[in-house]
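Hi,

I'm pasting everything inline rather than attaching a file, because the server keeps stripping attachments. The sequence lines come first, and each chain or strand is labelled.
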Amino acid sequence: MKIAVVEGDGIGREVVPVARQALEVLRPEMSFFPVDVGYAVWEATGSACDDEAMRDLASADAILFGAITTPPDPDYRSVLLQIRHQLDLYANVRPVKGPGFDIVVVRENTEGLYSGIEWTEADRACTVRVVSRRGSRRIARYACGLARGRSQLTVGNKANVLKSDVLFRNICLEEAARAGVPCSTQYIDALALDLLMQPSRYDVIVTTNIFGDILSDIAAYLVGGLGMLPSANIGRRHALFEPVHGSAPDIAGRDIANPVAAVRSAALLLAHTGDAAGALAIEHAIEAVFSRGIKTRDLGGTAGTRAFGEALIGELSRLARR
Ligand code: IPM
Ligand code: MG
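And the predicted assembly:
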């Protein structure tokens, strides 16, 4: 199995190596190859992700991804969005798990407000929010597939205001009925609050692109912040795994970033390849390190990225030998 590794920029370069090591310990047969994309590459070459890099990404069985800083260029389009579009990674899956709750935010990942259809006029700028039947159908099916093995589905929407969300909500309800999945709908603003107040009420939440972006950051509050949340970007042919956080230039290079989100993203990669035991081993190792009081600063600890990483890899190696 060939894994493309994109460290990217900022703290991506510090947290991805820990995630990669975790994979190396658990799956020695995996092979890894670096793909250089991001702001630093843009500075050096004028292109943040050229055709060759895109081909390399497409050739991998899975992609382990860090984070990319957005270059200060008015014509620039986010590299991550380019990759999601080109590889058609239509499902963005963000599990949020803690004592008493087990939530998965499933976000449509290719259209909505991120359709890329936008322009600037003299006195205004316009972005078109595209919600297609096909796009809604496939994300609804994906979310129903997840919810079927669990308990229920909530459709986060703003159908009281947006026609595009009437379509999205209706298709989700149809698919849930077809799949026999208990399903309810909730306005996204009310859902954002209730998720924090009563997280145990939720299971799988499906929503459109930008609502899912915002909701998943909000949900990070439940688990100690963005340093903790992983994500999977899934398509029919390709899959990319990345922390929910960005490149965090303000703390980059200081050995203080929390690598848990990246390591958990590696766990999602393992689960995606059918290795549920490997994914579970990563969770157990994280728990074991926490229970020894080893935490990074965002969680109130004093461990640096490297020290936390070493403790984690130590735990994993012990678990792997058993
Ligand atoms: C995320 C990020 C991205 C998004 C940015 C970096 C384009 O915020 O993955 O949540 O908005 O999807
Ligand atoms: Mg985001």
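The chain is about 45% helix and 20% strand.

If the labels don't parse on your end, tell me and I'll reformat.
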